[in-house]
Amino acid sequence: MRLPKLLKHLAVVAGLVGLPVISAHGQEPQISIMTGSPTGTYIQFGRDMQRLMAQCGHEVDVVESAGSLENFLGVRQRPNTQFGIVQNDVLEYMQTFAAQDPDIARTIKGVRIAFPLYEEEVHILAKKDIADFGDLAGRRVAIGAENSGTFLTASLMLSLAGLEPAERLPLAPKDALPRLLTGQIDAFFYVAGAPASLYLGSGIDGGRFHLLPITDDTLRNVYTPSTLAAGTYPFQTDPVDLVAVKAVLMTYDYDANRNAYHRQSCNAVSDMSALISTNLDSLKQYGHPKWQDVDLGAIPPGWDVGSCVTRGTSADYEMNCTAPPSAEGDANDSYRRSICAVMGC
């Protein structure tokens, strides 16, 4: 399925579902963040945010997914899903096709930026006889599961470079790796923040396989040039030049005056925004290494920040925190009290 057809299909699905579902009986909604596969960076970021919100007394469900496309639609249509991590090129091409197609325009309506996150490297693990990106022509290439950001990025990059593999297999990276190791495919794409745990300790033979350098001028003009340092992975002894795409935390533009569901979801978005903006230094110190690259001011052009995010990052915002229960003498109790003192639990 080529990109415009894929986006059209996704737009129709989203259009049938419509706005986020309102919780029954006005009960406080579950807070969820759509992430990615168990071996990816998205899910680790989701868990860091889950731990952060726990200090405010909020339970957050970290949801595994196929990746960016599913996450984008999850924010738009999935009940009780206030956040999703999405690749920036998904946003750019959604915007491009929205100008041409009313169904896609409806799909992106109400979806907003919460925060820009980090650059994700485009990993292409390939047989050693595939020397560069152009050598993927005529080969068996796994391009990621449908509805994933890897699927979209791989499709775009192959199209931009004018390459046609012999086979494009819609396989998730975790399923593609064993097929590469046993010779059933020749290469596979994986868009993930380095170091991606899939490549750590997986028995990849550096004599047979390597990460493909991406030096194509067109691709390096469209995407961000990047370099993986030598030794990022056990099989990778030399630096590798490639490209990257930024990951972004998305949300929905809830209207706190509309109903209980919107009000409670807006409060959750505001609380998460306040916690991230005031605890970024701690996340950089104790969270996934990619937090080191987060610049909260690097908003992608053409997209607006959600109003509930803006409210949460304002200096006079008072958080809706409830101190989590703890046994007397709990070693974390003093830390929780200090968080509440600073944050206004």
Automatic annotation (TrEMBL):
This is TRAP transporter solute receptor, TAXI family. Residues 1-26 form the signal peptide. Gene3D superfamilies: Periplasmic binding protein-like II. Transmembrane segments: none annotated. It comes from the Bacteria. Coiled coil: none annotated. The keyword Metal-binding does not apply. It comes from Paracoccus seriniphilus. The keyword Transcription does not apply.
